[in-house]
Amino acid sequence: MFQFHKQASKPDPNYLNLVDHLAKTKSQLELAYQNFENATEPELIDCYIYEVNAIQMRYKFLLARLKSYEMSDS
Hints:
There is one protein chain. 78% of the residues lie in helices and 0% in strands. The chain is mostly helical. It is elongated. The mean pLDDT is 89.
């Protein structure tokens, strides 16, 4: 008969911060891949390989933090 609506809580700033960092890291990873694909000098190729690996590690870390945050919130 009566429907009670759960008040929409404000988004958690920590969660929003993680989502923002994840999106920025994804953009950085796409750029690093583009730079790697366009590199012709062996030194630059090595540089972009290290950069892609580092950004991939950061992306995986942030994704794991975000998933654990979501699991603890449920």
